[in-house]
Design brief:
Keywords: Cell membrane, G-protein coupled receptor, Membrane, Receptor, Transducer, Transmembrane, Transmembrane helix. Belongs to the G-protein coupled receptor 1 family. It is found in: Cell membrane. One of its GO terms (molecular function) is trace-amine receptor activity. By secondary structure, the chain is mainly alpha-helical. The chain has a single domain, classed as Rhodopsin 7-helix transmembrane proteins (Rhopdopsin 7-helix transmembrane proteins, Up-down Bundle), CATH 1.20.1070.10. Helices cover 71% and strands 1% of the residues. A two-stranded antiparallel sheet has the order 1-2.
Length: 335
Amino acid sequence: MEYSADSTHDLIEYCFPHSNLSCTRKARTRDEYALMYVFFSSISVFTVFVNLLVIISISHFKQLQTPTNLFILSLAVADLLIGGIVMPVEGMRLVESCWFLGKELCNFFPAVICILVSASLGHLVFIAVDRYVAVCKPFFYASTMTTGKSVACIVLCWLSSAVYNWTLLHVNENMNNPERQSSCLGECLLLIDFTWSIIDLVFSFILPCCILFTLYLIIFFEARNQARAITAQQGSISNNVKYAISKSSDRKAAKTLGIVIFVYLMCWIPYYISILTQESTSITVYVLSWLMYMNSFVNPLIYAMFYPWFKVSIRHIVTLKILDTSSSHLHLLPQ
């Protein structure tokens, strides 16, 4: 937004007015501050709330503690931490145009962001693999995707995310050279050279994107072929009904596939384009990074709210029926 020369917004403000080393900050009106804080706070609270519902649902109800849902549970934990830790801090930095949390947190916080975002993305890949095995290798699913193996995959996801991102930050001297992260007081930057940006682009975006797209495409065509095979085996009396069900399943599978891929790409592509474009300003990167964080906002809607059990469990949680000691053994879905 452009302001005239006599605008009060053109007055120079400093992050730390009493320091000669202070960075400048963007001047805002009280209404702008209030509106921005309400906006970012609302997104953060809703992200935490919806992911907390997923966590409570799967943790409380025994029937929901399947290998598949364990991935969704761990994904919800990662997304809840993004909503409860990353979003408030990044929201404050966008509103204030300054970093007020000190050098120590400036050194540590980028690692938290990278680990949580990578873990969230890793869980999406594991969920895709789980669904691939369930649809394309149904006879091997029970032996392949056990609870123990799901837990092992979850641990692997978190550990690999931590090791990869700590290595990335150390190699680029973000952890052991804090002076490199700021040129003035009130600034906190994540600096990664172009070569490592390309490497990170491949491992953190292109590769997961290719895996997700390929697996969901295979799942869609396999599900369609199975539906057609079932329809062909039905008696002539029920053929029309079964055909309608088959076409409905095809449309639902296509819709889910489209939503997953579209949201994933829309949340991630703008951010990676911005960090690879030299003309991109830091404020542009901060704003577009929120699109990436929004993936944690919509993940529960895509991976949980489309499941019938989630709506049933919400009713039990909201009405406090889960306080009953026997409620954990309730059957939320028909056997």
